[in-house]
């Protein structure tokens, strides 16, 4: 044991090194991390506790010439309840967008938004909606964007969505 | 006339050289100072001193100075014999007046069956302790006397005769210190604490300085690299945090770029500090090995020789004296 200690003391200066951070570039809105065009939640991870409200942001990432969209969100209705949905700034233009949502109360939320005004279409990335959830029970509640979600151009044609995001609310 | 002078100088030179070589023959003049005592009577201590003195004569390595002459010198210097038994006092009292090269001071302590014997061999010229021998003994009194006699050989740096060794009794624990003697282990110990100290100890100042400064440079560069690393680390943390929190696409890419630049710098500085600390460790290890392996060069005769005038109280005449410290 003493020999081991001595060897360690002798070798210690040769083992000197410092901690290194290995940053992982996992921001959900990073186009190099995701495959655009995409619909997703950012951030995609939330912490809360029972009885508290959580605002979840829904984003469009690197979309081109989009005039409207439908986002279908599947959530765990035993743990979450939708309190309200408000429009983000992405479809805002000279006029407010047409914005409606439909929560069937069984874990399916549909959000519809259509750009109004002269532009008729929008490109790039931005916030589409803010969904306010109430946490009913503790545990992990998943939020999934269904593949029935749609992006439409000004002629009403589908625009391919390459990535659909997933989120989670972890309630204590 | 010139011939006469040259003859005179050749005689003086011959005398001096004879003295040098006689000094080098390892027979030295020694004065034994009265031992200090504890737990013993005056008669006991005198008897033990006599045994020690007799054994010291048996070594044939010491020419002993008359005790009465020594005591007379101490008294004439204004000191009292019972209180002037330690090295400092005796050296102050006798100076170099007696022509004695070394003094031996001692201490004998008794506590029931336990004895502590201690003798110190001090160079009068330098005032440095050459050897200190301390024996802790437990056993019958005749065994303690044997230990004291063995100590007389040890103090002269000689092996005690087998005849004495077989007479040993009881349990004895002996410690010998040679504070004035430079050793490779002493150099190694110093070099391990501070680079260059071992070399300085062995009078290799230039080499010592080279080791000290090179390790200092390596450590300084290592520290500077650490400081830069620390800054870069903080930057990575800040920019990465901003990248993760950012929702604006352009700013997100900006912070990502900043994070990557800071990360590169952090890795580079970490590599530099590793290299520098390893270099310092190698220099330190090499310094220790070098200090240990260095030859211990004895002082030259001219450095150890001391020429001076003195007064010999036995012949009551002043004398020219040449003394050389023998290690």
Protein described:
The complex is a heterodimer of chains A (172) and B (327). Chain A is built from one helix and 13 strands; from the N terminus they run αβββββββββββββ. Chain A is mainly β and 172 residues long. In chain A, strands 2, 4, 6, 7, 9, 10, 11 and 13 form an eight-stranded mixed β-sheet that branches. Chain A has a five-stranded mixed β-sheet with strand order 5-8-3-1-12, with no helix packed on it. The model of chain A has no long low-confidence stretch (mean pLDDT 88). With 327 residues, chain B is of the alpha/beta class. Chain B folds into two domains: 27-181 and 302-324, TolB, N-terminal domain (Rossmann fold), CATH 3.40.50; 188-295. Chain B is built from eleven helices and nine strands. Chain B has helices spanning 2-24, 42-58, 67-76, 87-94, 141-155, 162-165, 184-193, 197-201, 205-245, 249-293, 301-304, and strands spanning 28-32, 36-38, 62-64, 102-111, 114-123, 129-138, 171-177, 305-312, 317-324. In chain B, the strands form two sheets. In chain B, strands 1, 2, 3, 4, 5, 6 and 7 form a seven-stranded mixed β-sheet that branches. A two-stranded antiparallel sheet of chain B has the order 8-9. In chain B, helix 2 (42-58) packs across helix 5, helix 7 (184-193) runs antiparallel to helix 10 (249-293) and helix 9 runs antiparallel to helix 10 (249-293). The longest helix of chain B has 45 residues, at 249-293. The two termini of chain B are 42 Å apart. The chains are: A mainly beta (172), B alpha/beta (327). Chains A and B meet through strand 3 and strand 8 of A and helix 9 and helix 10 of B.
